[in-house]
Amino acid sequence: MKPYYSYLELQKALKSKKTTCFKTTKLYLSRISDHTHLNIFVEVFEKEALAKSKLVDEKIQKGTAGRLAGMVIGIKDNICLKNHTVTAASKILNGFESLFTATAVQRLIDQDAIIIGRLNCDEFAMGSANENSVYGSVKNPIDKTRVAGGSSGGSAAAVAAGLCLASLGSDTGGSVRQPAAFCGVVGVKPTYSRVSRHGLIAYGSSFDQIGPLTNNVYDAALILEVISGNDDYDSTTSSRKVDHYSKIISTSSPKRIAYFRQALELPILDKEIKNTIENKIIDLKNNGHTVDAVDFPYFDSLMPTYYILSTAEASSNLARYDGVHFGYRSKEITDLESTYKNSRTEGFGEEVKRRIMLGTFVLSSGYNEEFYNKALKIRRLIQDDTKKIFQSYDLLISPVTPHTAFPIGGKNIDPTKAYLEDVFTVHANLSGNPAISMPISNHTNGMPISLQITSGMFKEKEVFSFANSIYKLQ
Ligand code: GLN
């Protein structure tokens, strides 16, 4: 049976009694078991999902169902659900059960979404290919020999393969948008502080945001509207009122759009992706929008700034996994020091260890002035310059990735090459601005090509309206 590709479509079917939440949940469960070869889910909450779907069916009959009634959603394995295992795809969290539910997930549950399972990802959300997972790589549903992207590879592949209607991922440097682009779905990184990080396993706390992955712009807007907003459990959340993102305005009013000149001149940018973006620019101009190339002098500093600051934060956040407080403990222990040392050595994967070491180095005395503090200053300049751009422009566009999804096993050999995957996405994390990734075309290799649209702080509503208007233009 065909899955649903939009919540509106499902709602219609529920209303006309063509289906029930129970039947839809069963449908997704059977699709999940038919697609285990893609290695997308690491756990399926079959019984609970079915029980909840029955409850929601009753609520629908009584007219008391929530805004996401029957929406079947998968969650990345770094987002907590009370009394359920959560591992961040790491051996070090082997067997760890969460004591509470992430605020974002609780808000979905409160609106009668059905949480169907945990999704594969890169270990501690570090990676761009989902190849750093203790569960192995996720296969791209469009071409099984290729990666799904990362770190929220399972979240993107699940939506693309129709194993759930939507999913949650987390985005620290592009981890929602990049896999969304590789799998041809919509992915959103909200403004930093818009969505609570309570219950999200921390990687780089000044960057991390939870975001939705969906098959269309409306579903992403609706989910973001539900999960956004102030939260007492995360003091960095904004108390600003949440806009009605899902009330998408189909205005064709001309926009002032910018793109970074340096982005389209990047030598590693695939020619076809470049052409697609250039054609999109022409298309937008023909539709009455202004599109200008702007100089962004910090473009070459984006990657080093992100990798210095995010690894510094990671080295501190991951210090808590010591073999005592959480999950895995080495068998080879004789005293406290060997407990720490051997548990961490055996429990963390190669990439995570590399980043902990890099982060510890840039923070260490004698080097922190040269690296960490300098990167903080550059981040400030990036933020100031970005703010200036949004004084003259409504939106910023760019490719999401320098190329389409690559073959499994191809990139991980050279970590610095893998880091370049994030060249277009880290900007929005460093500056804090919201950004969407959405498919706009196909490469001759058969893989999707996506466009990234970034807006001013807290202007998600503008992003959704504009994205929806050009989505329809395809
Ligand atoms: N690919 C980036 C990294 O490896 C982004 C990760 C993320 O957004 N969680 O750090």
Provide the descriptors you would attach to this structure in a database record.
about 475 residues, alpha/beta, Amidase signature (AS) enzymes, eleven-stranded mixed beta sheet, 11 strands, binds glutamine
Shape: globular
Share of helix, binned: 25-40%
Q: Please write the CATH class name of the domain at 7-227.
A: Alpha Beta
Structural class assignment: alpha/beta
Largest sheet: 11 strands, mixed
Please report which band the strand proportion falls in: under 5%, 5-15%, 15-25%, 25-35%, 35-45% or over 45%: 5-15%
Tell me the CATH superfamily of the domain at 7-227. Answer: Amidase signature (AS) domain
Number of helices: 16
Radius of gyration: 21 Å
Write the layout of secondary structure elements.
Layout: H1 7-15, H2 21-34, E1 41-44, H3 46-62, E2 72-76, H4 103-110, E3 114-119, H5 153-160, E4 166-171, H6 177-183, E5 186-189, E6 209-214, H7 217-227, E7 256-260, H8 261-264, H9 271-286, E8 290-294, H10 302-317, H11 336-347, H12 350-363, H13 369-392, E9 395-399, H14 415-419, H15 426-431, E10 435-442, E11 448-455, H16 460-473
Parallel strand pairs: 2-3, 2-4, 7-8, 7-9
Antiparallel strand pairs: 1-3, 4-6, 5-6, 5-10, 9-11, 10-11
Helix pairs in contact: 2-3, 5-6, 7-16, 10-12, 10-13
This protein binds glutamine (GLN).
Residues 125-128, 151, 170-175, 203, 310, 421-422 line the site of glutamine (GLN).
